[in-house]
Structure formats: C-alpha cells, structure tokens
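Subject: sequence -> structure tokens, single chain

Hey, anyone have a minute? Need the predicted structure for the following. Not urgent.
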Amino acid sequence: MTVMKGLAAATSILALTLTLGACGGSDSDKSTLQQAIDDGEITVGFAGEAPYSFEEGGELQGASVALAREVFSNLGVENLDGVNTEFGSLIPGLNADRFNAISAGMSILPERCEQAAFGNPEFMYTTALMTKKGAGEGLTNLDDVKAKGLKLATMTGAIESTLYAKKLGIETQQVGTPQDGMDAVTTGRADVFALTGISLNWMAQNSPDADVEVSESFVQEIDGVPQVGAGATVFRTDDTELRDAWNEELDKIVSDEQAYLDIVGQYGFTAAERPDGSITTDQLCKGELPTASS
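Reply:
Had a minute. Here:
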C-alpha cells in the first residue's frame, strides 16, 4: 500500500510539473527568430578575418557584420553579440548552440551544407597569394605554388585548405587566423599564404611595416573547372524560419547595388563582389559550379 501511494504521489508531481511547464510558455518553445526578436539580440560567431568580421577597439566590425546588423535590424533584432572562434570551429560551435548564426563570409561548399544551412550568397570572391616583398614573381595561382615546391600556409577550415590544396595535392601548414598566416610568411615558416584576395589586401594595406605583397586575385581551377566562390551567413539546419526571413531581407539589399555598397563598401568591397544571381546556394551546395568564372 505504501509503495502504491508513493507511486501515485510521484505521478502527480510529474503531471503537475509538466502542466506548469506547458502553461509557463518556456523560452525553449520559441523559434530562434522569435526568441531573438523578444530579446532584442542575437548572437553570431565570427572568425576574426578582416574585412569580413573582426574586432577593433572592442567593437565587432566588418562587411559580414555590417550586413548582419542591417538585416537583423530589419527583422526587429537591434543588437548583435559576437563570439570570436577559429574558422574551423565555427560550424561545430553553431551546432553546439554557442551562437545562433555564423557571420564570417563562409564559402558555400557541399560538405558544409551537410552540416548547416547556408543563406543566399552575400559575397563573390577570388583567391590571392601573400609572400614577402619581391618573392611573388611568377606566382599567379596555386598551381604555380605547387610547381615551385613552395611552403604553403592556409587557414584551418578555409576553402584554400579543405578544397584547393587538398585537390591539388599540396601539403599545407595550417594556421588558426589570418594574422598567423601573415606571421608564417614574415618569419619564413611559409613561403606563401593563400586566402581570399579581399582579406589579404586588407591585411597588407593595414600592415605597411609587414614587408609583404599580395598577388593579383584569381579564380583557382581544379580539374579544369573554375572554382567560383561565394560566401554566406550560416544557420543551424532546423532554423529554416530564421534563414528564410534572413534571405528575404538580404535579397532586398543585394539586388540594389548602391544599397549593397553603402553597407560593405567601407570595408573594401566593390560591385565585383556583389552576387549577380548567376549562381545560387542550392547550386553550390550540390557542387554544380558554372563552367566559366564570373
């Protein structure tokens, strides 16, 4: 009899707890977008890669950040809180709920699309090579780096590492941040550092004493196919409401060249980096690259 009473009491307590939880309207029942609207804040992960997303004077800045602020503000979320994470840890951090989106100009790749949901393209980009001044002669792409047997540094998780160097059979020195890559070149630990042209040119311009130079930007070819690159904001796969709302507001900006440049132009981006609609996230996620660079 005592046991039965104990079971009955435990059952009643459990039922009461569930009822209170349901009536309380717990935050866990809200979508990420609604929670952000209610809080007036959303958290984004970034990788400290200027001019996409970086900290300066304790302030989160960059072209990706500026776009995020504009889009989220239009969605009713006024404040953006940043979490600085190494590039290769961004998607794991997103899926571990450390932040609600990734704002880092991350390129859209099939293997990444299996792990997270990418928004529409925000930036079209090319690759460039950083060397010591006077050491870049004859380097026009990564094929030249391989042919000359040079020591190549690439950023962990970046497309230059996970796709280009891997496909070309180039052994690379992995670095955690763009600054680490430039340091590898200036100290002689690497001959070349490969990253997006926008990032390398920004670093060179803002580090006049670093004694480095940056090649002309290029579209790397793999097996004769130009690897057209596009970067986007990234969301968890189950946050479709947030991604779709983001895309709707983002497209309004990207479709208007002046509106786009008003937001990202101060970070060195030009009309050449504005997506023109010739390639979509769906195509890039499927690995369906156009046959010619754009």
